[in-house]
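Quick one, tokens below:
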């Protein structure tokens, strides 16, 4: 038996969880090609405007059977009409699922499987979202404050970013008449 030790961490504050092991910042330049209005992104980057879109603070674990616990903070903002979001990914190990727990702010979790079956669930405080095996997931901040949520998932899940980078999600979330609205993604490509 492995001799592992329990830990506890505190939720809230600037980092969402503390202490943490890893911090990952994603700037607009890391999301090149992800937003619908690519020309806006390129114009911003050429003006050296490179806003921070989201940060992940994570307590990652080493062994199969353990859970990683990560806190994601998506800052409020839009590119054109499209709200800031995470890259989104499938888990490399398809059988693995994930649980998201809303801590503050409001947003949407988009989920889709490799056949393009798509679901959207709200994420906000006191909400739990279950992501079944085989579903890619992306989080979108549709509010005016930081969207903060906790993610709990098997340490051996792995992340496949490549597929979503290539195909996109079937839906995107844009502001219409001041409200977050799900529309078909005109750039969605069925997997070849
Ligand atoms: C989350 C995500 C986190 C950032 O912890 O990794 O929200 O999103 P991207 O990984 O898509 O950039 C999770 O789903 N982990 O498996
Ligand atoms: Zn995940």
């Amino acid at each position: 038996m492995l001799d592992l030790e329990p830990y506890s961490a505190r939720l809230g504050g600037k980092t969402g969880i503390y202490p943490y092991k890893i911090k990952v910042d994603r700037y607009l330049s890391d999301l090149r090609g992800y937003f619908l209005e690519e020309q806006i992104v390129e114009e911003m980057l050429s003006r050296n405007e490179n806003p921070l879109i989201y940060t992940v603070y994570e307590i990652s674990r080493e062994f199969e059977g353990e859970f990683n616990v990560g806190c994601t903070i998506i800052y409020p903002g839009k590119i054109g009409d499209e709200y800031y979001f995470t890259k989104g990914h499938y888990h490399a190990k398809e059988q693995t699922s994930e649980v998201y727990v809303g801590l503050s702010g409001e947003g949407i979790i988009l989920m889709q499987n490799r056949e393009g079956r798509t679901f959207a669930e709200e994420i906000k405080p006191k909400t739990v979202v279950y992501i079944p095996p085989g579903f890619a997931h992306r989080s979108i901040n549709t509010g005016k404050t930081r969207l903060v949520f906790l993610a709990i998932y098997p340490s051996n899940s792995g992340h496949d970013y490549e597929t979503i980078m290539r195909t996109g999600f079937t839906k995107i979330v844009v502001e219409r008449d001041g409200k977050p609205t799900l529309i078909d993604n005109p750039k969605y490509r069925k997997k070849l």
